[in-house]
Specification:
It is globular and about 40 Å long. It is mainly β and 122 residues long. Strands 2, 4, 5, 6, 9, 10 and 11 form a seven-stranded mixed sheet that branches. A four-stranded antiparallel sheet has the order 1-3-8-7, with no helix packed on it. 0% of the residues lie in helices and 48% in strands.
Length: 122
Amino acid sequence: QLQASGGGLVQAGDSLRLRCAASGRTFSNYDMGWFRQAAGKEREFVAAITWGGISTSYADSVKGRFTISRDNAKNTLFLQMDSLKPEDTAVYYCAAKPPGYGSSLVTRYDYWGQGTLVTVSS
């Protein structure tokens, strides 16, 4: 089970830190990702991190502003979001997949959290 939290209403330029608490499975066995879905749009990749935390990847739209990290000892995934923009407004989801290719592909992820809403006002 994945439980995302930390969303809220902020102004452009502010920061937020999302958390995803994992339970029920061995967290460190999975690559993890963050995705987002804005109203009326498809779910899109935001960031991913490998099972051991060695490798990360980001969508071009968030590169340099967002940082993904994980604490396997605490079964927790994070997304630090800085310099937020109104176009970052969306429901953010955490997800887990088996190690390997396709970190940006929705279809590669087997487990999903319920989502947390981030709203960035201008």
